[in-house]
């Protein structure tokens, strides 16, 4: 048993029914009993006279949704004073207008000012209206609400405290949402020297302390404190260096500078933090967040309960390693140091990593075996994903070869001059390649992706954040360890970071001030989710790999089955595998067509018929549900077209701009296809599987992009670079180039320096 004060506010068992406070945000979805505290700035309008009705309606909707999920919701609300102030001002103005009408000759009454309204009177006038508004709003969701008014003195009387506890439990049992507020019409001032002495006692002097006190009294799982700031900052919000604190731990107060309190209300951020820490020690998790921001207030409460990174989360459990924000900052600093190295030094790091992949083969395969066994035991991965997860000696050897290619080709990637212009005499301009900054690469079931992407980031001088799937945790861990060992050769170990915390992908995509480019590697659903979640950060990749092979009338019999077999069957789970086979209509019922069908059957490829193909058959395979399907397995769609022009139109309508192929011996037809298909990769008489960074001679790729800006197709080192402009002058000013100035623009193109022959 723990006592919280000499006159104990509550007796809290050390082991409670709902356990200790949650250690991680991801656990908040398990919160059963939740208190939502609405600050004055959240409930009131900007003029502090009246309620923010739209915002309040949105909060009620979110609370109702959570209540209807079976949670027990309680609201600690402000707003009575503001609502009462609005009503009393209206009454005073009405009264003045009546008196002015009766005494229109008395000019001294015409300019009668509204008197200063006493807060207790405003609270008395506004309390009933505020509750009536809550009642009306909750009724829309078939939820009943009940009002409870309390004062500090109520908590110093044992019997009253028991009565309050019993009332709240009974209301929750009946699925009623209690709406609690301090009785501001009669509330006495707080007792002197009784507020938050250590963490032993907390007096109710504002709704922050009331919410904390009730949360502990009711053994609440989660307390959500909504205010008019995003959360807790390490310095006053608005100051240049202010950073939002994602997780706040007891004892961190010394690192925080508190600003002034909100525009309305009794408590400032310091009061909120003290109340939050008191509730946290009582076993209740706390999140302080912004309830006024128009873009997030409509889902802030539900986002918090879902475990999303919103506001400041208070936790008693400090993680063993750095936060993801700290990792991103370390990656940026490490990337800048990496970019400053000589090209030979960056290449040396990559060569070292290639050697480690073969030297430490046994340890890597042992870790990968653990991942495979866990995945098979849990049965959570489909066969294609299990294949992607698997590493082998040959895969590691291929990886090492690819990394050595990257090292050899990266000698002049960073700092390469791509344009030189003489602007005027002694004023020369250069455009040079530079790293993009910090890359976030998110990949699933592909541990071999980690060394590939790391090598490309090292070669291009970028900092790197890696987020791998938990199904490859053991493999990723050892591969990252080896990467950092290689980086240590030149003291840039921190340039590549592996995110091991419980960060949700959606939360990572919001770090727009820390991450410059997101590259997803995984399923089309993963890519779509990331593209949707990314806030202000460009995403490079492709959401789908719907690749086509068009068999023309002039196709070679020998080439057709080889190219189709390789495109579909060599690795059906790959994004560059064939998904739709387009056949010219004249080839139907020919020996070539029969050979294609026989080969697919032998390879056990399930065929889906397109609408036109099905119309030609008496007994057809199952008709395709959608011509925009990426199967990722031994399945494909067959459709019929009347010409190369129709094949191009079909690809543009149903394709994903990834990789498309024509098989023909007619050069004119082939060139038409190559020039008119608007995809990242377009091939003639070659398998779709050649769409790969390693096969293109890039050494490896961070992914295949179907975007139309920056980089397209397999993205190697060049796709991870941008440029900056360097201008070298000698006391040049723009005014010298005015109409009657002393200088003239030359804009002469200058020869580029010779590239490294190696």
TrEMBL record:
Task: Provide the assembly information.
Answer: Can form homodimers/multimers.
The UniProt function text for this chain reads: Bifunctional enzyme that converts glutamate to glutamate 5-semialdehyde, an intermediate in the biosynthesis of proline, ornithine and arginine.
NCBIfam families recorded for this chain? P5CS, PRK00197.1, proA, proB
Q: Give the matching Gene3D superfamilies.
A: Acetylglutamate kinase-like, Aldehyde Dehydrogenase, Chain A, domain 1, Aldehyde Dehydrogenase, Chain A, domain 2
GO terms assigned for molecular function? ATP binding; glutamate 5-kinase activity; glutamate-5-semialdehyde dehydrogenase activity
Q: Where in the cell is it found?
A: Mitochondrion matrix
Which GO BP terms, alphabetically? L-proline biosynthetic process
What EC number(s) does the entry state?
Answer: 1.2.1.41, 2.7.2.11
Task: List keywords of the entry alphabetically.
Answer: Amino-acid biosynthesis, ATP-binding, Kinase, Mitochondrion, Multifunctional enzyme, NADP, Nucleotide-binding, Oxidoreductase, Proline biosynthesis, Transferase
User: Where does the secretion signal sit in this chain?
Assistant: none
Protein name according to UniProt:
Delta-1-pyrroline-5-carboxylate synthase
HAMAP family for this protein: ProA, ProB
* Recorded catalytic activity of this chain's protein: L-glutamate 5-semialdehyde + phosphate + NADP(+) = L-glutamyl 5-phosphate + NADPH + H(+); L-glutamate + ATP = L-glutamyl 5-phosphate + ADP
Would you name any one GO CC term?
A: mitochondrial matrix
**Similarity section:** In the N-terminal section; belongs to the glutamate 5-kinase family. In the C-terminal section; belongs to the gamma-glutamyl phosphate reductase family.
Please list the residue ranges annotated as the Aldehyde dehydrogenase domain. Answer: 323-588
> Which InterPro entries does the record match to this protein?
AceGlu_kinase-like_sf (IPR036393), Ald_DH/histidinol_DH (IPR016161), Ald_DH_C (IPR016163), Ald_DH_N (IPR016162), Aldehyde_DH_dom (IPR015590), Asp/Glu/Uridylate_kinase (IPR001048), G-glutamylP_reductase_CS (IPR020593), G5K_ProBA (IPR041744)
In what pathway does it function?
A: Amino-acid biosynthesis; L-proline biosynthesis; L-glutamate 5-semialdehyde from L-glutamate: step 2/2; Amino-acid biosynthesis; L-proline biosynthesis; L-glutamate 5-semialdehyde from L-glutamate: step 1/2
Report domain Aspartate/glutamate/uridylate kinase positions: 32-290
Keyword Nucleotidyltransferase appears in the UniProt entry: no
